[in-house]
Every structure is written in structure tokens, then in C-alpha cells.
Amino acid sequence: MRRSIVFLIFFAVGCGTNTGVQPLGSDTFKIFKQGSTGFVGSDKIRSDVELQASQYCGQQGKSMKVINVITGQPPYILGNFPKAEVQFKCVDPKELQLVGGTTDGGGSQLAALGEVTISSNVANADVSVDGKFIGNAPITALKLTPGTHVFEVSAKGYVTWKRDVTVVQGSATRVVAELESVR
Prior knowledge:
This protein has helices at residues 2-14, 42-59; strands spanning 17-18, 22-25, 28-34, 63-71, 83-91, 114-120, 126-129, 132-136, 139-144, 147-154, 161-167, 172-177. By secondary structure, the chain is of the alpha+beta class.
């Protein structure tokens, strides 16, 4: 009897709500997740939901483009547990190209781009390029125009990593962000 009660308590504490991917409209989706306790923050819930959305789009050979993010606010008591909803589109990676540099106009636009892979020592860190949120690390095969781009990688509890990276036409560039813990 005692084991049953302990099991039910752990089961209730461990359960949360995750709607999975739900269509919102034309090529637009949402995922909502709520924790079952206040012991996990909205940032962690948001990161989990964004990763799930990114994986969903990746299964289709596409990249995730965030449309809107809604997170819950503390205090996390009386049923107001941490929550996050991410509204997103799955787009062709070409649509996430960022402006910067020029193309020669003689060949195809894709041939005029460089390819960038971004990884971090912190799983699911937020990645922005030229001030635009791209997704969560790791990111592979991001197509960018040649030229210098500003890369920022950030995560809660870590100092934001920021670097200028030069992308070369037709070349692959690997960016590794080593985030340092805030002390």
C-alpha cells in the first residue's frame, strides 16, 4: 500500500503536459508544454519545446523558423507551473538565408552561398546570426551569403558567446561556441 502511494506521488510530480505538434494554420504549427511542478523554469521548458519543433522540421528536411514564443511567468504555485508555447513554421533552409555580402549574379544563388555548422558545449543553446534567432545548437548546413556575420550563442547560466565569422562562397565553415559558466 505504501509503495502504491509513493508511486502515485512520483507519477503525479513527474507528469506534465506536452501537446506535441499541432497545426495552427497554413504551414504554421505550435507545441505547448507545461511542467508538473515549479522546480523547472520556463527557460528549460522553452528550450525543450524549441528542440522538439526543430526536430519535427528536421524530419521533413526543413529548418524551423520561430514565429512566436509565449512563456509562463512566476510565481509557480497553485497550478501556475512553468510553461512555454512555441509557434513555428517549417521552411526550406534557403529561406533562412541571411543578408550580408554579395553574389556574382552569374550562377545560381545556392552556389553563391557558404555553408555553416554551429555547435556548442551547452546542449540546446540559443543561436542567433546577425541578431536573428536561428534555432538551437547544434545547427547543420545553414546557408549564408558570403561575408562577415555576427554569431551569438547563449544559454541560461552562461556568458553569451559572440564572434564575427567570415563565410566564404562555396565553402563549409564550422563554428564551435565554448560557453563559460556565470560565476
